[in-house]
Amino acid sequence: MSDNSQQPAEPSDAHGERGDSREAQRPAASTAGARVPPVDAASAAAFSRPSGVDGPFDPRQWDSERDGSATAGPSRPAQPPASLVEAFSRDTADEGVVLQRPPGVDVPDGARAKGGNGTEPLWSSSADPWRNPGSGAVLGNPALAEDVDDAEEQRKPRERPFSLAEVIFGGRLRTSALVILAVATLVVGALGGTLGWFLAQQGNQLTREVTLAQVDEAVERPPGSVARTVAKVAPAVVSIEVTSGKSGGVGSGVVIDRDGYIVTNDHVIASAKSNDKVEITAVFTDGSRAEAQLVGADPKTDLAVLKVNVSNPTVLRLGSSERLRPGDTVIAVGSPFGLENTVTVGIVSALNRPVSAPAETGGEQVTYDAIQTDAAVNPGNSGGALVDKNGLLVGINSLIRTVGNARGQGGSIGLGFAIPVDDVIRIVESLIANGSVSHAFLGVSAASVAANSSRGAQVNNVAPGGPAERAGIKEGDVIVQVGERTVRNAAELTVAVRKHDVGDTTRVKLVRDGRELVVDVKLGSD
Length: 526
Prior knowledge:
This protein is an alpha+beta fold. The protein has helices spanning 28-31, 41-47, 59-67, 82-88, 150-155, 164-169, 175-203, 226-233, 270-273, 421-434, 467-471, 490-498; strands at residues 237-244, 247-255, 261-264, 279-283, 289-298, 303-308, 329-334, 342-357, 366-373, 385-388, 393-400, 416-420, 440-441, 444-448, 457-462, 478-482, 485-486, 505-512, 515-522, 524-525.
């Protein structure tokens, strides 16, 4: 900064000439018709250039700041860089024009002194004496620099962090206004939440609490429907569990008497006949269990009778197998593979179908006149009920034809066989009364004439002193009829004889040496 005791220099015009008053310092365009007040000495001393300074900047300040010394006299500015000189120097064609014209503007020779098209120059000597367009373009600090001591620096107000109100609202709200605004926000939020909850409870029918009305009976089942029939039959069908140590098997049984008598298959309880340690248990539909005692069994027809000590059991009503016809609806109820109370529905496929199977414990094979059905019957259904659409027992399920190689293997292929209830009644009554049963006996051992043929049963052996020998039947004879029943194979010969009572006399037709013979035979007991 220059010394204040030094007299300020007179301002100069654009050509370096000094003026005598402030009136000469105003632009020519602004002096027309305007009165410029005189400049007093105090103002001139305060605002005029320091002595020795020709341009807008004081180069002495740069020298003192650069070397740390205070130079009494002014110093000339350093030579500007060549790039700035080239960029900001005057064009030779604008000689005499104070303010350089834009590049590319052609100025006529007669207008150069006036600045263009006969007008005043863009910058005249009387414009602003403090702005010298002819000075060199140099970047630097201001001409005057104010000395700031440590005391003044300390007197400056210290910066403080912005408050939340200043950040959000720019500091325009008071603390009390902020508190009121926060309370109002909370009240509005609470009212909005309450209203939303109320509308959601009233309008959202998917989440509201409801109680669905129910009726006592949703579906009306007509009499004779399978569901009504099963409801009556199922409580009288039980599962039969036969256990010996850790091994055992499961079958089915039917309660046929209020004293607790149950009919089942002989092969279901066969292991208990020769082993007293085998336990037989009847499991009812309600889950109750009762120990069962073996009353009697008939291996030849695969029937057995058990007894349990239970009070007021549900008893299955007995029907008649003679009234069945092929195509009648039948229902099988039992425990296939241990699945209690399994129900399958089918029809009567055939009646009076002679079937035979090896005995469970050896001896004479099982043979009976069966009801064939396509209702699914599987291992475990043995001893279960075959009922008609009225819920009457028409047969006891016993055998199936399957593709398995071993007995008890494989499943249903639509060929199931049941013992007719008419035969069951007769055998069960005898077992309950006597513990055993007797069948009519012809006294011959026969075999089918040819496999899968219906040409009769050929006699292989005749029991000495038996009914057949007394009637004159010989080995090699082919029996084709017993009473009114045609005999097609060996199994049918057996069932045809058992249709009669012991002691009955029946007519037997046979073929001997190509001739038909008829003999009367009085049947004995096996």
